[in-house]
Design brief:
single chain, 154 residues, alpha/beta, 2 domains, two-stranded parallel sheet
Length: 154
């Protein structure tokens, strides 16, 4: 069998945690992607276990490992009805042709800047993938996708 892609939800389910089905896996995947999630009516102890730093980091490590093997992991995305992409920015956009971060944001009306600690944050935009800034560390820990200013096209 040659697996080319999986959803983040499928990865969580494949890890074989007891009583972890599609509903809780979907909500956990949404949380890891920085989207709104809802654990209402789900077993609190199980949710707490899955959200613990050990389990959360293990899931993220498995996702990164699968991606390094060439398997595409489809992460949950914001609802297309809103059209808003919530981003945090670090570094300077100048090397990418933008005078300031405000100039960058003004070119992309679908972007809304939020704090890296905001649970809505979907992307950290940086000037360098190898940056060791605090925001990069937080984004990595929270599973927030990291992109450069150059990844965005006008």
């Amino acid at each position: 069998m040659n697996i080319k892609s999986l959803t983040y939800t499928q990865v969580i389910q494949m890890l074989g945690y007891d009583n972890v089905g599609e509903k809780i896996s979907t909500q956990l995947a949404r949380e890891h992607a920085g989207l709104d999630y809802d654990y209402a009516n789900l077993e609190r102890a199980l949710v707490a276990k899955l959200r613990s730093p050990e389990v959360s980091n293990y899931i993220k490590k498995v996702v990164l490992t699968l991606e390094s093997l060439g398997i595409t992991i489809d992460k949950p995305k914001a609802s297309p009805t809103t059209g808003t992409i919530y981003v945090c920015m670090t570094g300077s956009p100048k090397p990418f042709g933008f005078a300031t971060k405000a100039d960058f944001i003004s070119k992309f009306p679908m972007l809304e800047e939020v704090s890296i600690s905001d649970k809505k944050c979907q992307f950290l935009i940086t000037d360098d993938y190898n940056s060791t800034s605090n925001k990069m560390g937080v984004a990595t820990k929270k599973g927030i996708q990291i992109r450069t200013y150059g990844d965005f096209k006008i």
